[in-house]
Amino acid sequence: MTTGTDWPLAHTFTSTSGAVRWDRLGPPEGPPVVLLHGTPFSSYVWRGVARALARDHRVHVWDMPGYGRSEKAAGQDVSLAAQGRVLTELLAHWGLEEPLVVAHDIGGAVALRAHLLHGARYRALALVDPVALAPWGSPFFRLVREHAAVFEQLPPPLHGALVRAYVSSASAPGLRPDVLERLVEPWLDLSGQAAFYRQIAQADQRHTDEIQRRYGDIAIPVLVCWGEEDTWIPVAKGRELAALVPGARFEPLAGAGHLVQEDAPAELVAALLGFVTQAP
Is the predicted pLDDT of residue 265 greater than 90, yes or no? Predict the structure, then answer.
């Protein structure tokens, strides 16, 4: 297992949903960028993209409460509603008024909720295979959500095998073994196993239902990137989402699955940089 020295997240912020580990890269004077991860991942999935963007931008990364190296606790609120509030708190803590926000998977729902419900202001928003449109959640995800208390009692070897298989399915070409182990590591000890099923149990579609009708009100530049081989959320959802947001640009990425950051990092960085240069 790794020690976290490869992705240290040196800072801690006490949020309303627990301690959040975060860090920033790049020149202090660079335009601010905030990266949001999805589930069951952490900011580690952004490491390559973050370092590429950090050549000219001030890049902020963080692990959501209940994920990665952030606090995991019994009874913790790790819902999409809670994460939207935490993002708003973090933006204020960082003193960022209009950053570029790049959000993956449930991070997309979190970014959209913060913007539409809590008044978080962005210069522009890039959504990467986001959770945004109903219905969402794979058959596996729904099964676990309905029986989270049962799955939480799995013997650790079975739980570990399940998590590895699930995370592996997010990549179209397949993950390197060392990357797979780094991605599943936060979920393998006792607190991590409980946290894994807790975040699925709290994944409620109503948190996207209540904002979906407002996507037409978004008035900032929006880029929707999607892995064409995504088996978790089909690429058709990306086209549907882009059609709902005024002026949104849709960028399909060939050969990439749901975990675009691992499958096509160079192509994703190119799309993001092109988007940034065109955003006012």
Answer: yes
Question: pLDDT band at 101, cuts 50/70/90?
Answer: very high
Angle (nearest 5°) at CA 62 between 57 and 217: 75
Q: How far apart are CA 113 and CA 171, in angstroms?
A: 27
- 3 pLDDT more than 80: no
Q: Is pLDDT at 5 greater than 70 in this prediction?
A: no
Beta bridge partners, 58, equal 32
User: Rounded distance, CA 84 to CA 193, Å?
Assistant: 23
Q: Residue 225 is encoded by which pair of tokens?
A: 């990137």
Distance CA 67, CA 61 (A): 13
Q: Is 98 helix (H, G, I), strand (E, B) or coil?
A: coil
pTM of the predicted model as reported, rounded to 2 decimal places: 0.96
CB neighbour burial string for 43-75, b if at least 16 within 10 angstroms, e if fewer: bbbbbebbebbbeebbbbbbbbbbbbbbbbbee
- Return the DSSP state at 11: E
pLDDT confidence of residue 221 = 97
Q: Hey, how many other C-beta atoms are within 10 angstroms of the C-beta on 204?
A: 12
In whole angstroms, what separates CA 81 from the centre of its chain? Answer: 14
Is 1 a residue whose pLDDT tops 50?
Answer: no
- Altogether, the residues listed in the chain come to a count of 280
